[in-house]
Amino acid sequence: MATTTTTAKPTAPSAVQRWFPIAAWLSKYKWGSFFVADLIAAISVAALLIPESMGYASVANVPARLGSMPPPWRSSVT
C-alpha cells in the first residue's frame, strides 16, 4: 500500500522579510551553538580587513580613515 506525503506550500515572504531578510531566519537562529563561532569569525574578519582596507586607501592616496569605513559612508565623508 502506497502512502502519499503532502508538503506545505511555500508562502510568499512578507514585506518586512523582503526588506530585511534577517527577519525570516533570526527566530530560527541557534544562539547556543552558533553565536560564539560567529562572533569569533566576525572579529577575525574585522581584524584582517580593516588594516587591509586602510592600506589600500593609503596606496590610493586618500586618507586612511576612509579605508576603515563601509562604502555607503565613504561618499559622505570629505
Measure the end-to-end span: 74 Å
Count the beta strands: 0
Which stretches are poorly predicted, pLDDT < 50 over at least 5 residues?
none
Shape: elongated
Order of helices and strands: HHHHH
Mean pLDDT: 79
Percent strand: under 5%
Number of helices: 5
Query: Could you describe the largest sheet, including whether it forms a barrel?
Result: none
How helix-rich are the residues, as a percent range? 55-70%
Using the CA coordinates, give the radius of gyration. 21 Å
- The helix-and-strand class reads mainly alpha
Could you explain how this protein is built, in words?
The longest helix has 29 residues, at 31-59. The protein is mostly helical and 78 residues long. It is built from 5 helices and no strands. The termini are far apart. It has a domain at 44-78. It has helices at residues 15-19, 22-25, 31-59, 64-67, 71-74.
